[in-house]
Design brief:
The protein is α+β, with helices and mostly antiparallel strands. The chain has ten helices and nine strands. The chain has helices spanning 2-33, 38-60, 75-81, 97-111, 160-163, 192-202, 242-248, 269-274, 278-286, 301-307, and strands at 114-120, 137-143, 152-157, 168-173, 180-186, 210-213, 234-235, 313-315, 322-326. The strands form two sheets. Strands 2-3-4-5-1-7 form a six-stranded mixed sheet, with no helix packed on it. The protein has a three-stranded antiparallel sheet with strand order 6-9-8, with no helix packed on it. Strand 2 and strand 3 (152-157) form a beta hairpin. It starts with a helix and ends in a 27-residue tail after the last strand. It binds a DNA duplex through residues 72, 98-99, 101-103, 105-106, 109-110, 138-143, 145-146, 152, 154, 156, 158, 168, 170.
DNA sequence: TAAATTTGACCCCA
DNA sequence: TGGGGTCAAATTTA
């Protein structure tokens, strides 16, 4: 009995890994067609390889095949995820559509990549909870969290219905610092806006006016099967004059004082290196956080290298923190090389904030 | 009037 | 069994 359960789990993990591999391959195909950055393609390839290696290890029994996530997936959930896997005769067919939906949601939530950011905003920005990061979010819930002084807001991508974008984020005001919001992102944007933002970010490459400083990576734990840890960035903004704010307006940049003493405070790059996870970290930037909210965004060198940014880098107080300059828009770009100017970019009407 | 937000209820899981 | 996350109806906003 116990053995059978174990086998079922392995089969589920296998299915999950193969499915993931397939999806990643499809993403890669899409990126090939859109001449995305080499880093991004490399990352997708490494993820695909990892998925298949893991699947193989499950088949051969050489690995434990279970990770923190997949071992929680039940047989029922797995079947529900693949509606075609059971026919009318299955007792599962009696499960309501809503039940199916819910179970899919819970499973997807658990298996989606997630990472955390701490974003400091100045009071009066009117961005509480919204914290515009360039994506369109729709609030779908709010909960009081045990032990937390402030409620947690739940947001999902506006394009979820139209484009099936599964990205979600949680926003909670920090208990210790009311000006700091803890943002937890889950899932990767698959909406058009994501690729458009990526293009905007890439457009930073040739632009040199606005200073970016990536401050720190606060947390990283290999929570997701292998590559998607939780990483944190503390993003500060300051010194935006009216003109610059206008420039940033499409992304609603707030302005807050920078805490220079915290620059380089957290060394996460080395942690990544030690864990051979540098490549794995790429996805964190590849997808959403897209914090457009600072004119002062610090980036550790490992980020820089994974971004393919080798130019216009100044050394900051920390060896692990460097400053980039960019003129019109800023972000901790998930996408590596910044290839074209933002001037080349046009927002389709449906994506303007 | 469509889109966004609020909020109580529901479900899953530790 | 309670906490966290999500759904969806009701309400608000643009």
């Amino acid at each position: 009995m116990e053995k059978r359960k174990s086998m079922e789990r392995e089969q589920e993990s296998l299915t999950s890994e193969l499915t993931q591999g397939k999806e990643l391959a499809e993403q890669l195909m899409s990126h090939l067609h859109h001449s995305s950055s080499e880093e991004k393609r490399d990352f997708l390839i490494s993820k695909i390889l990892f998925s298949y290696e893991k699947a193989l290890s499950l088949l051969t029994g050489s690995g434990d095949g279970s990770d923190g996530e997949s071992k929680h997936i039940t047989a029922r959930e797995t079947m529900l995820e693949s509606p075609t896997s059971f026919g009318n005769s299955s007792p599962l067919s009696e499960i309501s559509d809503q039940d199916c939906k819910r179970k899919n949601v819970f499973k997807k939530t658990k298996t989606m990549p997630s990472w955390t950011e701490e974003v400091k905003v100045s009071s009066g920005t009117g961005l509480d909870g919204g914290l515009d990061d360039g994506y369109s979010w729709r609030k779908y819930g709010q909960k009081n969290i045990l032990g937390a002084n402030h409620p947690r807001g739940y947001y999902r991508c506006t394009h979820r219905g139209t484009q099936g974008c599964v990205a979600t984020k949680q926003v909670q005001k920090s208990d210790t610092d009311p000006t700091t919001f803890v943002l937890t992102y889950r899932g990767v944007h698959t909406c058009n806006k994501a690729s458009q933002l990526a293009r905007v970010k890439e457009g930073l490459k040739g632009n040199q006016n606005t200073t970016l400083e990536v401050k720190k990576a606060k947390q990283f734990s290999p929570e997701m099967s292998f590559s998607f840890g939780r990483a944190g960035l503390r993003v500060k903004t300051e010194h935006l004059d009216a003109r610059e704010k206008d420039i940033f307006s499409p992304f609603s940049f707030p302005s807050t004082p920078i805490e220079s003493e915290k620059v380089g405070e957290h060394i996460f790059c080395s942690t990544m290196m030690e864990n051979n996870l540098v490549d794995s970290y790429a996805p964190i930037f590849e997808s959403p956080p897209a914090i457009f909210e600072s004119d002062y965004l610090a980036v550790s060198p490992c980020h820089m290298s994974s971004f393919g940014l080798a130019h216009d880098v100044q050394t900051s107080e920390s060896d692990l923190t460097e400053i980039i300059s960019a003129p019109t828009s800023v972000t901790n770009s998930p996408i590596g090389d910044f290839d074209f100017s933002i001037d080349d970019f046009e927002f389709p009407p449906d994506c303007l904030v």
